[in-house]
Structures are given as structure tokens and as C-alpha cells.
Specification:
This protein has helices spanning 2-35, 38-46, 54-66, 71-79, 82-99, 105-127, 161-168, 174-189, 197-212, and strands spanning 141-147, 153-159. By secondary structure, it is mainly alpha-helical. Strand 1 and strand 2 form a beta hairpin.
């Protein structure tokens, strides 16, 4: 009788230990998923310089779960945030400096603005059946064609230089550059975030941005 009781107690202890181990494994897996969700891996692939701290990843993942946000959606929200845009532009400016060492800072800003406007207008045309819906105060792009030696017609695009120079009159610093380019995105996004999730994302990312200045 005593022996049988000892067996039951031993089995109970073993069961409790197994349950405890399972709980630990669940917690470890939950922590791993919190630190390595799909959207973080996407950022590492597309924007490896957008380094997030562990605390930021946890806060953003908590936000995603609270609002049932798809991983792809959060990825684009983080990519398009004001803080991420500034980091992207800083990275882009360093790249331009490396490839155009003879250019002044103002000339580098101009290259970046021209590229952004060109890309935005061509993208809007592609998704809007040949027309873009950019505000009239942004420089226009001109399209022309020329014939290759084999007779193929090739389309080329150029930005209106006079209008671009007018824009550049108000861009004299990196902060000016960021505000101008961010404003292009925010004009389209102003009414697309009624829950203020984009603002919350910026708040989470902002502390690291302040340390980088």
C-alpha cells in the first residue's frame, strides 16, 4: 500500500515537471515569436539599416496583436513612418555622397528630390491607368521618345528643371529635405489612419531616432 502510494506521488511529480517544462517551452516560443515575427524578417530583408531595439520590436508586435494587423500591413506601416523615412533618406544621402563625392550637399538634396518625384509620378501613372494624381505644386515630368538603331521606340522621362529649382529654394538642410519628402506621402495618408496607428509607430521609433541625431 505504501509502495503504491509512493508510485502515485512519483508519477504526480513527473506529471507536474512535464507540465512545467511545457509551460517554459511555450513561453520561450512566445518570446521568440515576439522578437522574430514575419514583419521583422521583412524589414531585415528590405531595410537592413532600420535596426530596431528589442524593446521596440516587442512594442510594435504588441500593437500589431492588439489591433489584429496583418504582418505585411505592419511592415509597410513601419516602412512608411516618418522616422523610418528619415532613416531611409539618411542612408540614401550617404550612398549619394559616396557615388558623387564632387557634389555639394545642396546638389545631393536636389538629386534625391528629383528621384523621389520621378518615382512617385511614374508609380501613380502605373496604378492610375496612365495618369498621376500628384498635387499641381509638385514638379512635372516630361516624356519623350527616341528610336534605337533597331527601330525600337524607347520612352524617356525628365523632370521640369525650372519647377525643381523652385522647390529647392526651400530645401537647405537635411531636415528640410525630410519634411518635403514626408509631406508627399502624408498628403495621401492623412485620412487612411483613423486609429492613429501610424502615430503610435512613430512614437515607438522616435527615441532611437533622437539618439541617432
Amino acid at each position: 500500500m505504501q509502495f503504491r502510494r509512493l508510485i502515485y506521488i512519483s508519477l504526480l511529480y513527473i506529471l507536474l515537471i512535464c507540465i512545467a517544462l511545457i509551460c517554459v517551452l511555450v513561453l520561450i516560443e512566445s518570446e521568440r515569436q515576439m522578437l522574430e515575427p514575419k514583419w521583422v524578417k521583412q524589414l531585415a530583408t528590405w531595410r537592413p539599416y532600420l535596426l530596431l531595439e528589442t524593446k521596440q520590436i516587442k512594442q510594435l508586435e504588441k500593437l500589431r496583436r492588439e489591433h489584429d494587423i496583418e504582418h505585411d500591413v505592419l511592415f509597410w506601416l513601419v516602412m512608411g513612418s516618418r522616422v523610418s523615412t528619415r532613416r531611409f533618406l539618411r542612408h540614401m544621402l550617404e550612398d549619394y555622397r559616396e557615388h558623387h563625392p564632387e557634389a555639394s550637399e545642396k546638389e545631393l538634396f536636389k538629386m534625391m528630390v528629383a528621384r523621389k518625384i520621378m518615382f512617385r509620378r511614374l508609380f501613380r501613372r502605373a496604378v492610375n491607368s496612365g495618369t498621376d494624381d500628384m498635387p499641381p505644386n509638385y514638379p512635372k515630368i516630361h516624356e519623350s521618345e527616341y528610336k534605337e538603331d533597331d527601330g525600337t521606340m524607347v520612352g524617356t522621362y525628365s523632370i521640369d528643371e525650372q519647377e525643381l529649382n523652385q522647390v529647392m529654394e526651400g530645401i537647405n538642410s537635411f531636415d528640410d529635405l525630410c519634411e518635403y519628402i514626408i509631406s508627399m506621402d502624408e498628403q495621401k495618408q492623412a485620412s487612411a489612419d483613423p486609429l492613429g496607428i501610424g502615430e503610435r509607430i512613430d512614437q515607438i521609433l522616435a527615441q532611437e531616432e533622437l539618439r541617432m541625431k
